[in-house]
Amino acid sequence: MLSFIFRRLGLLIPTFFGITLLTFGLIRMIPGDPVEVMVGERTLDPQMHADAMHRLGLDKPLYAQYIDYISNLLHGNLGESLVTKSSVWVEFKTLFPATLELALAAMLFAVVFGLLAGVTAAIKRGSILDHGVMGISLTGFSMPIFWWGLILIMFFSVKLGWTPVSGRLDLAYDITPRTGFMLIDTWLAEAADPAANAGAFKDALMHLILPAIVLGTIPLAVIARMTRSSMLEVLREDYVRTARAKGLSPARVIFVHTLRNALIPVLTVIGLQVGTLMGGAVLTETIFSWPGIGKWLIDAISRRDYPVVQNGILIVATLVIVTNFIVDILYGVANPRIRHAK
Amino acid sequence: MSLLEIKNLSVEFGSQHNPFRAVEGLDLTVEQGEIVGIVGESGSGKSVTMMAMMGLLEGQGRIVADTLQFDGKDLLTISARERRKIVGKDIAMIFQDPMTSLNPSYTVGYQIMEVLKIHQGLRGAALKQRALELMEMVEIPAAASRLAAYPHQLSGGMSQRVVIAMAIACSPKLLIADEPTTALDVTIQAQIMDLLVNLQKSQNMALIMITHDLAVVAEVAHKVAVMYAGQVAEMAKVPGIFRKPAHPYTEALLKSIPEHSKGAHRLSTLAGIVPGQYDRPSGCLLSPRCPYVQDKCKAQRPGLTAIEGGVVRCHYPITAKEA
Hints:
Mean pLDDT of chain B: 87
Low-confidence stretches of chain A: none
Domain ABC transporter (chain B): 4-254
Number of domains of chain B: 2
CATH topology of the largest domain in chain A: MetI-like fold
Order of helices and strands of chain A: HHHHHHHHHHHHHH
Distance between the termini of chain B: 34 Å
Oligomer: heterodimer
Number of helices of chain B: 12
InterPro entries (chain B): AAA+_ATPase, ABC_Ni/Peptide_Import, ABC_transporter-like_ATP-bd, ABC_transporter-like_CS, Oligopep_ABC_C, P-loop_NTPase
Structural class of chain B: alpha/beta
Mean pLDDT of chain A: 86
Structural class of chain A: mainly alpha
CATH class of the largest domain in chain A: Mainly Alpha
Membrane topology (chain B): Peripheral membrane protein
Subcellular location (chain B): Cell inner membrane
Family (chain B): Belongs to the ABC transporter superfamily.
Strand content of chain A: under 5%
Number of strands of chain A: 0
Number of domains of chain A: 2
């Protein structure tokens, strides 16, 4: 197991280099530079432009800029935003809990309903329920996030008025961020001062529901389909027949003897969805004006804020890689045959 | 009263309009402590009969019978919940391939203890003690340490012993062994057979042995049912059925044992295959393959008639000569 972990860690080094090259290259391929974007439509004196570029160190040849970037990285320096002048790491730390809260809520939604839908479809194979569930999940999978988000806002927020349109919390509340998770912060605030913060938790929850559904739709569809096919495969196994022959209840046969084995491939898929989730977060946060790293990165790209784009994406990529790594280890926990393999 | 009584059992698969009868009009009785062998080619309905009785067909097959009684309980009208109290406790089953019959995600100990927990409500130390006893009963060496082993860490023979331990956990009245040795090495086969027969004696349970191996049946069984295309062709006591087979199919099966063809150039075989879903003859099901076929056989299906020590489904049972 230990050698397995080290081998996987060794593979990460080239991956990281690939990511730095990609982000470094791509952001510089977009026309315009940070100075031009900052100045906007006003005409810019070429001499001032050159001075500004020199101050930012962007007049150096590309290879020199890349070497600077990597050497900074190796010193643990993630740089500063060209626009706000504050540290990329500090900005990330402030914004990340919002994205994490959204992603966790979306994942919870996707896993709970995805597993339920997949298991139901597998047990009732070939029934209307099966076709219905799978049809809906295919629709969900093919739905463009921005369109789906807008439709939900139109219906639930604008027409029915059930949920707020955007943001994380109503402006009427003034909550001190302690954990950065709005649900926890409002809970604490309500407990500390019930009079001033009445209803804050519910308000935060209502703000979270729509974006979580939008972001969780694709992972839900993928998990449901994977669970269904995996369940159907395991249901045909001899050991499921053995479990029935032992006189176990149908619930025990399904959840203890079938689902446990069917979950192994589903777990991998859930891990892979973390990448999709981060990509989806960028769109979802933009639609719902959710102040997380997705929106932060989009803004950084439009401002050509090179350090934020490069290192922001690097951090997000690292998170995705680390999650998949953890999933690989969990895979061993769920499957004794892998755990014992030398 | 017999322990198990099956009368006129039929199992159908497929649609209502175009059903396939895997088992047709099957009669079988098993007494307490009796060993019954069921032999027949693949697809003759041996396993399906047993699965139907245990309720393992899960709504895929339609089951019809005049009588399906176990230990005084009517398995046809019983609720699924009531049936689950019997299955795994009073009737237990051992399957063909031990390597795939155990759940790979749980330890051997867990899977044995699960039966004890569900049916006998054992808990804690008593539970573990009983599981250990069972492992020792099926002669698994170093039983205590093997409780924590996962199925993939055991050989085929060891796995089959675990499956047997699981099956006899609640001292069943009837044990069904569905080709318990087919997937094992020849040397291990003999050990497992010995173990099963010894357990049958010490636990005084009835044993239904589904097998291709006539030699095994001849050695241990009290009674043999020969199945062909979903029907019982002949059912009679041992050793009578081996000395004087009444059905041409039984005779052909016995002739195809290699030991019986010593000195011959070719092994004796019965030409043709078991008729499938669409090509079942209107007369006797064996008529296209039977060496003694007559006109009546092609026209009319024979019913079961009593012979000495059993029943046979043939218009012209072989009576005169000794096989």
